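Record type: ASSEMBLY
Status: queued
Input:
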Amino acid sequence: MEFRILPSPEPHHALLVLSCQIGEQVVYDAPDSAGPIIAHYLNHTVFQSKPGEFAYILGPDGQRILLCGAGKLEKCSQDKLRRAIGKGIKEARKHKMTHVWVGYPSWAAGVLVIDWEQLVGETAIMANYEYKSYITDKQWVVGLTEVALASVHPMANELVRKGVILGECTVDARELINAPAHELYPEALAQKAQYWGTAFGFEVQVYDEEACRQMRMEAFLSVGQASSRLPYLIVMRWKGQGLNTPIGLVGKGVTYDTGGLSIKPTQGMLHMKGDMGGAALVIATMCALARLGSAQSVVGVVAACENAIAGNAYRPGDILKSMQGLTIEVGNTDAEGRLTLADAITYAITKENVRAVVDVATLTGAVKTALGEHVAGVVCSEDSLYTKLQQASKQADENFWRLPIDDEYRDLVSSDVADLSNIGRDGLAGTITAACFVEAFTGGLPWLHIDIAGVSFTRKDHEYISKGGSGRPMRSLYHLVEGWDREQAG
Ligand code: BES
Ligand code: MN
Ligand code: ZN
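Status: finished
Output:
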């Protein structure tokens, strides 16, 4: 998709006009050529500019206008604006339009957290994506080829580029999540990381099973041992200009989760190709940091494997020794993600000397039950880390909710026969007990744990996220890293 800065639309452009409601009035900015047509339309219809409300207006000279409502001005937010843009882009796709010009809504200046140009770049790229790789009839998969927007900002092109990169990295993460597991197995994931590392200039090192065995990663390797697809530890390094020690980003990379011997029912297995959502985000964040030349240093770690079933599968009742040294009783082979995270985190701390650990994982069904598909669950070691995440999320419009952690919960992952159990006793507080397990491997470092089992994969189309892998919350991770050492306001 091409982006152009263009003060007014050209005849081949469809016009995307954003509107809001002020009192009884529908307010919008439009070029002179379209203003009267829209006014005429509004005089003769009941368009109220509600959130998601949309009208396709055809001008007398063939001008196509996509009028997108963003709701009442006093209730408007940056996300409502994104959704209105996304709605317009999706409708443009539906009508096989390829060139769109987006008008700047002067009424929305007060709701923007990031620059308008970046917002359009991000949102247009995200809204233009659908997973169609395996649809044979490519004819209708046209999509937009050009988005033009008006801007008087002297850095307009750079700002658009930033948005485009964040949008593209989100889409890259979605592609990884949507790719079926027969195509995207651990080695394929490692190759993807290597390909992007070369393309964008971050370092990628891949450890095979034998190398992981030498590092005594028994927790990780046990999960992957029943699969014919071999496990790989993927390490990505980005060194910013600053002299800082790296932040560790650890992503769950289970390329398929059958549940193992504690097998999942068919319905529960259906979307488990997406159980590498955390890995997809970590890889995509590395791409974004490198492409945008971040000053921060970051190490991304993914212990990629497939949780399969065979005679040599690990079993409920097995006792594993983690790389860190703690022993783990396997209460359920379907609680595999935390086992892979444990060794990946130990690797990040002991071999890469990270100063903090951020782990992202499609870890528990419980987080879906608690928070649904649009809010990620967070557990962290310090208030200040959550504040950083909240500030990042305001730029990205991705949602988080913090859950508590204390010794009452920690006690639930104790075991009679080992140092830890991989399941919480009595099925209590599934998301928090998973976090307690992971915490045991963080060595007291600043730690932020993000459970994305709900937000990573959606069953419903959204204005700028099509159903399937969402790529959330990749952009928050990027902003989190970027803002990590910034003074906190307030
Ligand atoms: N990958 C799943 C969690 C998941 C569930 C992700 C639904 C996306 C959608 C994870 O490995 C898992 O199976 N967790 C178990 C843990 C339990 C056995 C303690 C769960 O949540 O049921
Ligand atoms: Mn599982
Ligand atoms: Zn899993």
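Annotation: The longest strand covers residues 247-257.
Annotation: The first helix runs from residue 35 to 44.
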